[in-house]
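Let's practice the habit of predicting before peeking. Look at the sequence and jot down your guess about where helices and strands might fall. Then scroll down.
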Amino acid sequence: MASFVHARDRSDRKTGDPKSVKAVLGPTNTGKTHLAIERLCAHSSGAIGFPLRLLAREVYDRVCAIKGAQNVALITGEERIEPKGARWHLCTVEAMPSRPDLAFVALDEAQLSADPERGHVFTDRLLHTRGREETMLLGSATLQPMIKALLPEAEIVTRPRFSTLTHTEPKKLSRLPPRSAIVAFSAEQVYAMAEMLRRFRGGAAVVMGALSPQTRNAQVAMYQAGEVDYLVATDAIGMGLNLDVTHVAFAGLSKYDGHRHRRLTTAEMAQIAGRAGRHHKDGTFGALAGMGGHDPEFAPEEVYGIEEHRFPPLTRLFWREAEPRFDSVSMLIDDLESPPPRPELATPPQAIDLAVLKRLAEDPEISGTVRGRRQVQRFWQACSLPDFRQQGAETHSRFVARLWQDLRHGYLGADYVAQAIAHLDNPSGDIDTLQGRIAAIRSWSYIAQRPDWVLAKDEMAARARAVETRLSDALHGRLTERFVNRRTTVLMRKAGADAGLLPVRLSDAGAVLVDDEPIGHLEGFRFVVDPLARAEDRKLLLAAAEKHLSGLLEARAAELVADAARADGMMLDDRALIWRDRAIARLESGKALLAPRVALDPTLARLPPPTRERIETALAGWLAEALEKPLAPLRQLEEASRAPASGPALRALLLQLVEAGGVLAREESGLDKLDGAQRDALRKLGVRVGGLDLFVPGALKVPALRLWATLAALRGLAPPRLAEAMPAALGGQHPPLGYRRTGAQALRVDLAEKLLQDAHRTRIAARGKRYYLDPALARSMGLSTASYAALLRAAGFRVATGRPLADGAFGPPMPPLWDWRAPRPRAERPRQRSRPPATGAFAALAELLD
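Done guessing? Here is the structure:
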């Protein structure tokens, strides 16, 4: 019909030439949207209405590249980019401007006029929004009967699909081909599918209607860039998203539409399945198997309809009065619930905006504040705020009621809006928490776009967009962290079934990388699989490492040999040779105490024999150099013991010193068996003959003591302990290595000799008289008076206690006085002859006599 007359005989709202209306109908992947963009850019001005903000933004970027950003506007509920003088507008359907001066107007996905929730908006744009020169309606072929009935003057053009869509047998999740999209119909099922894909295939991108456009864009970009090969989505994927999908797998064929749980229509199945294949690239679709007895199955007639693009035509479109009267709230509700004027149109289920309006109208405190046409219109605009939180009419109506408290007086308070936005600016939390915050901030983005609601509109809108961007980035990060295992994705993409194809390299930190993704690391020369790797990855990781490990280990061996030659990065820790914080060899007992042998760690066993020999030679050279300086005094003694001129007595004494670590008690040394020449030779070798001990001063240094203790342990000798402090407290323990017992303490033998030499100097100065020994020097070394006295007595000094003061006498008591008598050599006790055990009547007496 040439004109559409309102039920109440209102004037015709259509603009433009009715004969310029063109309906371009066909299945997905027919180039309809691309055609609309071409026609838009061919006109001097125009607008296209899209069902999703995401699509509007995508096309906005494309048109900006053609016409320049200064000439293109983006208008959605939550975002408005309107340069002054912009001539081309990309909008959501609800935000399409009603301007008769636009030369071109297009409506995308016009078949959504049959959608119960938003259909009345699409129907209004289909019937009344026109371009001055050209109007284009884009949609499914199922819309054709409605176009002919409602717009008989429109030219209908059908377009075939560029590629073929073919049904395949059900496949398990683990057998889906790369570049597949899995469609589920609940957030729980989406998360479950994505989690399983993470285990089987390294992860998946996630696309749901509940995500913010930025998050959906980031997830889609990750899939399009090939970072993951799988996409898990709700039916939101079917609404015009251009993706590189070759196969669509349905995890179910029914969904809850807000009112009941129902099976998808064939047209809805086709809308989703049509995402498979792009331009002239064919695609496939099928059900997902392995769902535990709940495998979805396509009916033969559904498969036929999807493959041949034949679906039942639409028989009615949803309609609601688009220009209600605002004389009163009751009149507004009556107009919104008025019946449609034609049989092709139907009354939709109660939408959220009308439900909120009716709930608040029943509240006397709120309805009493709505007076006058202007207030009623403003109240309806508040009730039309979209329920981004999806919490239902009851909760949403309370939020609108709070807004109305300020809106009925004029504007929302700037502090109130800023505080509400700042409260949501928190990127921490899990996926569900972030989704809730994003839904809430989208409400405030919508509110901030209304110049008659918010005074500082530009500032508040910018704040809301910035918060939404931060929350979206955080949500994208949480989704990627939870559902994407980048390492497994790289492995599957690069290797497939052949781990030898993986490009493996070694980082400076020792990490084994595949395309910069760590799969493990080298601990010395042992490959360790990344502990974060899943059990399913380990076999592939080990196989990849096995293929490339020989080359990596050869390179590491060359570095080890070079570092050993430079004495760089090597150290000896107890019996282990440490290189770059890892044990690569151990010391073993050699032919002599001071000549240990290097035994390579078993982790070097996979190296070829020539490489192992080079490493052994390099480590032996490093060890010899490391032992040379600290053990030089003992090595000198060991070499002298092999000289024939030393004689048996000196040779035995030198060997005892070496095996004792350079310290030997004088009484056990056999010193008295040496002649004068041998004593001179002993002194030239650097051995100090003290009053109580023979010692080599150079062997008393901490590095020498530590090394000798390690070498002694290799020979099976009792491992002596090293002193932690000086003097050492003994208790019931043996004195530390290089120390002498002095009562309850132990003192290093060279310091003990220093105290004795000081005492002998005092004795010589006394000329045969008893003398006083000042304990100040001993105390400076940490010795107690009792320990000092014990040392003196061991060296032959004797003490005489002074007489006490007479009764009535005053003054300091007489100090103890000392004299010295050379200690007698300790005679060896004769061995007792063993005799047979006593028997007979005198056995007990024999025991007593013993």
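How did you do? The two ends are 140 Å apart (CA to CA).
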